[in-house]
Design goal:
The structure holds two protein chains of two kinds.
Chain A: E1 4-5, H1 9-23, H2 41-47, H3 55-62, E2 69-76, H4 84-100, E3 104-111, H5 113-125, E4 132-136, H6 139-145, H7 166-170, E5 173-174, E6 177-178, E7 181-186, E8 189-193, H8 194-199, H9 211-225, E9 228-230, H10 240-251, H11 274-289, H12 302-310, E10 314-319, H13 322-333, H14 337-348, E11 349-352, E12 364-365, E13 367-373, H15 386-396, H16 399-404, E14 411-412, H17 421-429, H18 433-439, E15 443-444, H19 452-468, H20 474-488
Parallel strand pairs in A: 1-11, 2-3, 2-4, 9-10, 12-15
Antiparallel strand pairs in A: 4-13, 5-6, 7-13, 7-14, 8-10, 8-11
Chain B: H1 17-44, H2 48-51, H3 66-72, H4 77-113, H5 119-125, H6 138-148, H7 154-178, H8 182-190, H9 195-206, H10 208-224, H11 227-232, H12 241-244, H13 256-287
The chains are: A alpha/beta, B mainly alpha.
């Protein structure tokens, strides 16, 4: 039996109001299609299924449906391990696009999450990039600042800037110019195994309230059962690491800069603040002092936590709602006695809000992906078919497809997606969705800086590794990382 | 009175410590190399859930060939892609091998038989490319391929693989030709054969083991290569197997049985090739190393 853990509504409501203000503080909002100040699972349910959208008609206004052209397009794809449901939606998307725009010759290429940025960088060096690309949220400002991207705002493809989370728009804005459009936005949640909690003497239906509790629960699970308590990941150059460490850093009141403040200006490096060091100390305590996380955490990413969780060897982890769908797929394909065992794992899965810091601060990475158009000089053949690119961008960022393409693990970039009938259906079909939509207002975007990928994928994991391997003390690792960020930023 | 009989105490065979140590070492090495292969095969016949079970099942209680069916079924997208990647790898590796042998055979022969100015320098300079890590040449070669219009073509891979496959092939074959007595060719020349005829009719048949070993080296190098294929190709239709198997990894999850089945299928051509031609391979290695 699965249960949703959503408690402390009053406290949360106040926190949401403050954090929503921070997420919406970038631009003077005209009229967003949803009322962000009312954001709650009930509100999301109340708006789901209240509007109909005709994607072909909307996009036909941007690029005529009989337009003849050619488009090369790269995107972070879904592959064999992803939920069947999501893979089907991706397949449907490209089929529908081809039917809607039969005269656009689309050459799409799916790339894996960890490879996309590196491969794209190499392609740019050789002027062999695709005409349009969908990148993870970290990439936008890096490539915009280097002049690779064409200015592109939602209005260029038939939508309004207010149709998107203001926090997400920050990630595609560089030097006051918008260079892309958010396709999906996501916030993760804490997943735990109720049976492990019970056997370890913990309340199976209560997640750890604070990060300090996570450390204590992890130790208790390890001491009682001899298995890993918390799924710490510290792999270098893998997006999974900052997505799981930054909520902890922000929760303790730390940060790389002031990105967790309402109006960040990234002017001060805070990676070696006392609060940041406390967050790093928590990881150190779990890995070195208590040995309560996987020994392989230094090279682990989320894909390594999942087998441990499925096998009942891991008590807690941070992940997407898609983990639930992956489990359903595994159960569906399991045979014999495994089918029953898989069902037991599903029954014991619990989702809850990400824990808070000691001061009650709750935070999560406001992640997702954005879609961009390249400048012709960096594209293979030296030409960009802009109408064709806008057609696919309009399609992907539409209420319908921005929801369907994020069906199992994320949320629609276009806020109108929450109003579609598919959102209603999704709320009924996908367990734990309430938890991740509840986390959205706590989302903090990565610093909208070109250096952000280097900081998040290299410097932050390096800091963790230096502390956890004993190469440096916690203080030294934090100071070292802060120094590297300062150097990278040109001597802040 | 009978002569006293001498009873010899049974002689204790001396334990040959080195022999036993080497046996243990060989058994250890066998386990070290064979167990991962065995584990790969066992995982490939598990369901996704069983592959993650703890403690692991040494033999699945419900073995399934679903992953193989998936890979070999051209009706579904996974099978279609896998078979295409397989064909692409086979095409690139075979073409690389043929070209490597075609170029390396005369080049190695020339280095072995002819004395010309700069011979030593040239011979060592062919190795220059192999003295640096492959990744150093990644971006320069990518830009070069772009200039040549070869990005997103298999030609870019064949050309690149030749740059690091050829030096090794030339060195390997040169050692082999050095061990073929020049007197055999001289005898053929006395009997009226041209140098080319002596090469084709006398030297080539004798160097077959070396050529086969060179071909295997080139084939395996091209078959397993990842980083250049990953960089130069970005169209799904053209990907080779090492890049293609990445599709079993996702952001948050891995399809272990699918990955293991694909890896097993990927190892089949190399293993078969090696098993069929291993006697030549070993001969080439040893003959090239000893002066007669």
């Amino acid at each position: 039996m699965t249960t949703f853990i959503l408690r402390g509504a009053a406290v949360r409501g106040a926190a949401i109001a403050v954090l929503t203000a921070s997420l919406t503080a970038t631009t003077a909002l005209a009229e967003p299609p949803v009322d962000l100040s009312k954001w709650s699972p009930d509100y999301v349910r109340s708006i789901a299924g209240t509007e109909e959208f005709d994607t072909a008609a909307e996009c036909g206004k941007v690029t005529p449906l009989d337009y003849k052209g050619r488009l090369t397009f790269w995107y972070q794809g879904v592959f064999e391990g992803d939920p069947d449901l999501l893979r089907q939606y991706y397949k449907d998307f490209f089929e529908t696009f081809r039917k809607t725009y039969p005269n656009i010759q689309l050459e799409e290429q799916a790339l894996t999450y960890n490879d996309l940025l590196d491969k794209f960088r190499t392609a740019l060096l050789g002027n062999a990039a695709p005409m349009a690309v969908r990148l993870q949220i970290l990439g936008g400002t890096e490539f915009a600042s280097k002049g690779y991207l064409e200015p592109l705002k939602p209005e260029d493809v038939g939508w309004s800037t207010e149709d998107f989370w203001p926090g997400a728009m920050k990630a595609v804005t560089w030097d006051g110019v918008t260079y892309g459009i958010p396709t999906n936005n996501e916030t993760m949640a804490l997943i735990w195994n109720a049976d492990i909690f019970k056997r370890a003497g913990l309340d199976p239906d209560s997640p750890p309230a604070t990060w300090d509790d996570v450390v204590a629960y992890s130790k208790q699970i390890h001491d009682k059962l001899g298995i890993a308590g918390y799924g710490l990941v510290a792999r270098k150059n893998a997006g999974n690491t900052p997505y799981r460490f930054m909520p902890q850093l922000w929760g303790y009141g730390g940060g790389v800069f002031d990105e967790a403040d309402a109006s960040p200006n990234y002017g001060e490096v805070r990676l070696n603040s006392e609060a940041s060091k406390r967050a790093l100390q928590a990881s150190y305590d779990m890995y070195v002092r208590d040995k309560s996380v996987p020994t392989s955490a230094l090279t682990n990413q989320q894909a390594d936590n999942q087998p441990l969780f499925v096998a009942g060897q891991l008590g807690m982890m941070i992940s997407h709602p898609s983990d639930y769908n992956v489990m359903l797929d595994l159960q569906k394909k399991a045979t014999g006695a495994d089918k029953e065992k898989a069902q037991t794992v599903i029954d014991n899965m619990r989702y809850g809000l990400i824990p808070t810091g000691p001061d009650g601060k709750r935070a999560v990475v406001f992640g997702g992906s954005n879609i961009h158009i390249l400048k012709p000089e960096y594209v293979e053949g030296g030409k960009v078919d802009e109408p064709a690119a806008k057609a696919i961008i309009c399609f992907w960022t539409s209420p319908e497809w921005s929801l369907k393409m994020a069906y199992a693990g994320s949320n629609p970039g276009n806020l109108n997606g929450f109003k579609t009938k598919w959102m209603k259906e999704r709320l009924d079909n996908i367990k734990f969705l309430d938890v991740t939509t509840s986390m959205l207002p706590y989302g903090i975007p990565f610093p909208a800086l070109p250096q952000a990928p280097e900081i998040m994928n290299i410097i932050v994991p390096d800091m963790l590794q230096n502390a956890l391997t004993g190469a440096m003390t916690v203080d030294q690792a934090a100071d070292d990382a802060a120094e590297k960020v300062k150097e990278l930023m040109g001597g802040l | 009175m009978s002569a006293p009989t001498v009873v010899h105490a049974p002689r204790r065979r001396r334990i040959d410590g080195w022999r036993w140590a080497s046996r243990f070492f060989l058994v250890f090495m066998l386990i070290y190399t064979a167990v991962p292969m065995a584990w790969m095969m066992v995982t490939s016949i598990k369901s996704g859930f069983a592959a993650m079970a703890f403690p692991p099942e040494w033999w699945p209680s419900e073995p399934t060939l679903a992953s193989y069916r998936n890979l070999l079924d051209p009706q579904n997208s996974v099978g279609r892609d896998f078979l295409r990647f397989f064909w692409n790898s086979l095409y690139v590796s075979t073409l690389t091998t043929i070209l490597a042998v075609l170029v390396a055979v005369p080049a190695a022969y020339a280095f072995s038989r002819f004395r010309f100015p700069g011979r030593q320098f040239l011979f060592f300079s062919v190795l220059l490319r192999n003295m640096f890590p492959a990744v150093i040449f990644l971006v320069p070669l990518f830009i070069l391929m772009r200039f040549l219009g070869l990005v997103n073509t298999h030609g870019s891979l064949v050309l690149t693989y030749l740059t690091f496959g050829l030096p090794l092939a030339i060195w390997l074959l040169k050692g082999f030709y050095d061990n073929i007595p020049i007197q055999l060719e001289q005898a053929a020349r006395i009997d009226g054969a041209t140098r080319f005829q002596a090469f084709v009719l006398i030297v080539m048949p004798l160097s077959v083991p070396g050529i086969i070993a060179t071909a295997i080296y080139s084939f395996i190098g091209a078959w397993n290569e990842y980083i250049y294929a990953y960089t130069f190709l970005s169209k799904n239709e053209q990907l080779t197997l090492p890049v293609g198997v990445q599709r079993f990894f996702s952001e948050n999850t891995t399809d272990f049985p699918g990955l293991m089945a694909a890896s097993f299928m990927m190892s089949v051509p190399v293993v078969v090739l090696f098993l069929i031609l291993q006697k030549y391979f070993v001969r080439a290695l040893t003959e090239g190393a000893v002066k007669h």
